[in-house]
Structure to design on (139 residues):
């Protein structure tokens, strides 16, 4: 596959996307686990008084936890990246040089009744490489 970008927000669906990418990757493929954080829209006033380092630390923690769940992962094969911004837009930008983008069908945000979450929908419509959307586990 080459370079594979995986959106990982710490949700069960994003961990399933990472699992799928690892299961299908060849030993020489580069799997990049990416967590994108943003200031919640409900904060208003451009997030005045918020500690941005806490948002980034929480994103890093969720990413570390997701990657650590796969103890057979070769550290040279999986890299982690944290970005700030709109998750769909950041993943679209990262897809520019990728061979594949893998996302879960739903993440932490939004309405659970949606078939596809906003980020996976954005990825399907705007990514610059093929996209794999891993469906939610059945309840």
């Amino acid at each position: 596959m080459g370079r594979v970008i995986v959106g990982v927000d710490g949700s069960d669906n994003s961990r399933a996307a990472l699992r799928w990418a690892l299961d299908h990757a060849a030993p020489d493929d580069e799997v990049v686990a990416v967590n994108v954080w943003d200031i919640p829209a409900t904060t208003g006033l451009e997030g005045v008084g918020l500690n941005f380092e806490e948002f980034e630390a929480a994103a890093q923690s969720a990413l570390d936890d997701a990657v650590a769940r796969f103890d057979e992962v070769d550290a040279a094969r999986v890299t982690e990246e944290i970005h700030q911004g709109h998750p769909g837009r950041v993943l679209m930008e990262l897809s520019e040089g990728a061979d594949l983008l893998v996302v879960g069908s739903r993440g932490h945000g939004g309405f659970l009744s949606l078939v596809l979450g906003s980020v996976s929908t954005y990825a399907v419509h705007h990514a610059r490489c093929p996209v794999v959307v891993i469906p939610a586990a059945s309840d």
